[in-house]
Amino acid sequence: CSNRRRPGGAGGEEERTISTAKQHVDRVVSTARSGSAAARSRLAASWHRSLIQHGLDPADRRSPNLHDEGTIRERRSALDQVMHVAAPKLDQLFGLIGQSGCGVLLTDAQGVVIDQRCAAADEDIFRSWGLWTGADWSEAAEGTNGIGTCLAEKRQVTIHRDEHFLARNIGMSCMDAPIYGPDGHVLAALDVSSARADQTEGFNRLIAAMVAQTARQ
Prior knowledge:
The chain is an alpha+beta fold.
């Protein structure tokens, strides 16, 4: 018997994952520190905010911060009417995309998840990604991501895989749209996230259109 790792085995896969993460971190840091890149690209500008303004490290492997039950209740109570109106729309959207491995999340204006929908079979992976009620997905906490960047820029965004700031998030795709109140201020954000490796940018565009329509409703 030999303890040597086979190139195509678990050891080889782990090494490839580490290499991919390192390449991502190097690319993010290089781009974020380039003033000209930030001026030309909204994505680079978000990476710049994440690194310079928020002081985040793209190599950080920590899990997203989860608020306690009391804080979650307070945040839900503050948006009670919004949640009441949104609930059937979340159900409808999840009915359309839930079987494709996607989850639906509603956050408050600070990027904290206050409601969600996902298939029972996908619960473990969504928990492991931190895509769960109480998680803080603000740009200040998680860097460039669908929820946080949508709220920071007050516009519809899609953050696909390696467009994320943190290397640990490059396996997911996030499609988001802000939800505005009658006074024109952003009240919340609607998110559809997927960690499927085979999710294409074309499919993301289709989902993004549904997210935007649902947010307007």
